[in-house]
Amino acid sequence: MQYRRKQDIHMSAVAINPLNRAVRFYEAPIGKKAVMAVTGVMLVGYVIGHLLGNLQIYSSDPQQINRYAAFLHNPSNALALWGVRLILLAAVVLHIVSSVQLWQQNREARPLRYYKKADVPTSYAARTMLWSGPIVAAFVIFHVLHLTTGSILPLHDIGPNMPDVRYNVVSGFQNYWVSGFYIFAMILLCMHLYHGLWSMFQSVGISHPRYTSKLKKGAAIVAILIAIGNCSIPIAVMAGLVTY
Amino acid sequence: MPLDSKSPGGPIETRWDRHRFSLKLVNPANKRKHTIIVVGTGLAGGSAAATLAELGYQVKCFCFQDSPRRAHSIAAQGGINAAKNYHNDGDSVYRLFYDTVKGGDFRSRESNVYRLAQISLNIIDQCVAQGVPFAREYSGYLDNRSFGGAQVSRTFYARGQTGQQLLLGAYQALERQIGAGAVEMYPRTEMLDLIVVDGRARGIVTRNLLTGKVESHLADAVVLGTGGYGNVYYLSTNAKGSNATAIWRAHKRGALFANPCFTQIHPTCIPVSGDYQSKLTLMSESLRNDGRVWVPKKKGDARKPGEIPKEDRDYYLERRYPSFGNLVPRDVASRNAKMVCDEGRGVGETGLAVYLDFHDAIQRLGKPVIVERYGNLFDMYERITGEDPYQAPMRIFPAIHYTMGGLWVDYNLMSNLPGLYVIGEANFSDHGANRLGASALMQGLADGYFVLPNTINDYIASTKVEKMDAGHPAVKEAEQQVNCVTRRLLEAKGTRTVDSYHRELGKLMWEYCGMSRTATGLKHALEEIPAMREQFWRDVKVLGTGEELNQSLEKAGRVADFFELAELMCLDALERNESCGGHFREEYQTPDGEAARNDDRFSYVAAWEFRGVGNPPGLQQEPLAFEYVHPAQRSYK
Amino acid sequence: MRIVLHIWRQANAAAAGRMVRYELPNVNTHMSFLEMLDILNEDLIGRGEDPVAFDHDCREGICGMCGCMVNGVAHGPLPGTTLCQLHMRHFKDGDELYLEPWRARAFPVVKDLVVDRSAFDRLIAAGGFISVATGSAPDGNAILVPKENADRSMDAAACIGCGACVAMCPNASASLFMGAKLAHLGLLPQGQPERDRRVMAMEAQANRELFGSCTNIGECEAVCPKDIKLEVIARMNRDFLHANWIGRGGLKGD
Description:
The complex is a heterotrimer. Chain A has a single domain, classed as Fumarate reductase/succinate dehydrogenase, transmembrane subunit (3 helical TM bundles of succinate and fumarate reductases, Up-down Bundle), CATH 1.20.1300.10. Helix content of chain A is 68%, strand content 2%. Chain A has nine helices and two strands. Chain A has helices at 18-27, 29-54, 64-73, 78-108, 124-127, 129-149, 165-173, 176-203, 212-238, and strands at residues 157-159, 162-163. Chain A is globular. In chain A, 27% of the residues are buried. Chain B has a five-stranded parallel beta sheet with strand order 5-2-1-9-17. The two termini of chain B are 40 Å apart. The longest helix of chain B has 25 residues, at 551-575. In chain C, the strands form two sheets. In chain C, strands 2-1-5-3-4 form a five-stranded mixed beta sheet. The longest helix of chain C has 15 residues, at 231-245. Chains B and C meet through helix 3, helix 5, helix 6, helix 11 and helix 12 of B and helix 1, helix 2 and helix 3 of C.
């Protein structure tokens, strides 16, 4: 039990340049969490933007959403579109890689499980990030295969670089299995965002006794609004409110 | 030959300064060639180890807990005194000195107490700088309160956890030195013997509590900061692990034990609820600021407290001490509680409790004020007893809390064994026969941060200690002694557990050497204890081996020492034919039942010399002179 | 009342452990949880069986030495309470209780319910202090501390270092413990000069001790006997990010 060590943290040994700072940052679990928070912000921003775009399906002008799609697919915007896609892809990769590394480290921190372990009243969402994360990721792949590449159902086009989004969405969601999976995934996304949104504030250190509870409530409201917005589309299609 | 306290003479205000100047210094470059052992990591030991390491000494530090942060100093609630006079209410170093000497019932050494009062100023500064989060005013200045009946506001506090915060300050300073490699820390390691070579303390023998390994550690000097011996009573507010083994084994190697019968009883503890009870919990004395203490007037009144009308209640403290009322000092409050319980007017299932009633305070101030002042204490009470003190009055009873006695030390805090220093509660201390509230923390830190690190240099500088190694016969002998005790305990293979003996001893001590003592009772105890001790050695049941974590074995060794110490306490109490402070002899009281001191015969420190188990110890006296504060009868009427 | 205990018994750090069932037919409801274990041990010694080793000391909820998992909850079911302050009146006749030691790679089991928490001490030794040598302090009132800061610092300083947060955390993370120390010192003016160095050093040490990391779940906060809040972890994260990207203290020189 005796311990005697020279203090082995000599920062002076490290010449501080931005690269060293970055390495040290990523080596630290707190750094990885910050990476997850920042990439999380980007992804949430995308989710919200994507949702706003999708909601155009409710426009009284049935062609509104298709015009929007055509605008995005316009070849003169290709550079911007791919730029955004690459940034999002990078964010997704960083988000997943850091979470896997943290998960691995955390698993090793308790080699022997408890015989009995209770979950004290913490949020269900917090404890299920590890499940909601991969399922949402799987959903994203499905979603891209479904509506971007057309690998699940054949896609209709109005013209070159002008997808018939309205048709593709409505035909897809008329399939109960597809709709069911979308809704299920959106509920998980909601939970993931609820914990993730609050968590990102915590991870980058924005927290104070006076507004912690407000942050938590705010995170819940945003997550639920996103889920309602996204789920409403398959539901509206199945209910016959949105038609082609 | 009277003991020489080495107190400097002359004007008391400059004694410490002059003395410090007269002490030899050790060249900074030479300090690292000297090793100092510190046993115990409470306020005294922890602060001493950290400070000695800062000075450059090689320090080896030991504690029996799993971390130095757990020493029982951590449990002190109320606060720490310092004569800062931040409130301009007439406080001064001299007043703190005066109050402490008077509160100690004129059985302490003036020079030491004055130094303590002086150093109290530095302690607060040091602790603030370390980051102790003392309570603050809105202005950002330090807040003070008056505590334990003091008439000035000189108590600094950190909520109800002052001891914890001060200890964490010392612990962090210590960990810093451990991290820097200046202190070798040995947690879960118990000191079991002192190595004495040529009359000098040169090291200790320890047992690693996890592996059972017995080891010797050698040094130029040994510092004991191992706390008090209140656990001799089994039930006390001390931690379960608190023990007297380090000081007792040093005593058996020649260190004098001073004033062992001076023990302090704290009046506001949660009463015993059953035979299984393992310890007593103290509730801050501040409760008496607003709570009223009472018992029924009639013996055996079985009514619920709420059903007893005012005219059938006896607010005995207010009745007997109209000017101080419920705020009389600890010893007086405790003794009166015992008196009414002895009369059969105690309350609760056991009849060993009195009411501490907040009903009037809640009516007068409103519940929110009471919640703010005492909320955490009320919660603690409810947690332990399952009763709501906002509804029914609390039940309280006195409990052993602190021991003023301890190893004898001179002005330099060195015992009569050269090279053995004793600090904090472990020494016979600056509190005389009774300690005032918020003074224990002050003394522990004064000793550890400021006194010892100054005085120990003189010994190191002026003493040429021989080089020696672990093969030295004195080391072998001490190790053998330790192994022999362990073997005897394991081989007794008797029928009764260690705890059952400890409980029995505690009961006896509480009965005969507790809140009030009589010659007959003490003589009875002196007959019982040796018999009990012999039975213990014959019949104790300790399972397992000495080569593993064996908590029964640890306890057995400590209880064995308590048996011997208990005998000395009773003897000291019997020899001191007077009442003073925490030592109340029923034969010596004023007509109205107050303690009657006998300054002509007993104005001395009784320092006992060990002469073998079962043999009568030798008494040496250090006469006490009072040049500044003249002995007077304490009165709280 | 009757209580059935299933206790993790493990002879030493190297041995394999297992759950062993004990029945206590006569538990007094006023007993504390540790007093119940005392009774069990007295009984075991009487029968010649090895008593259950468990850490404890002050038994008034402040030293931080006691603690084990009771039915999967650190320090048992009562919030804001250490095991020694938990009383049997909170259980029912016939309850079955599973007692396990804190489990974490950084807290190896020593024996039965006793674990080695020296990793916490090493965290403090790495940087959990203010470097002030004895004697060099200015007058206490020379350093003004706004009351709100002093109070919040005290909230964090109340940590008793029991390890329940690590034990309960699904990741065995020491973030609440570290965050509490960093908040305690970081909220005070005295703690500012070393603030960057402190967080970097403690964070690095936590990784060496193989603690897990925080995923903001909050089970630590729920079982903390001193109600330390998750905010201290956010503060630590902020301090770390600041020290890493902007801070200079502790990164250069000496």
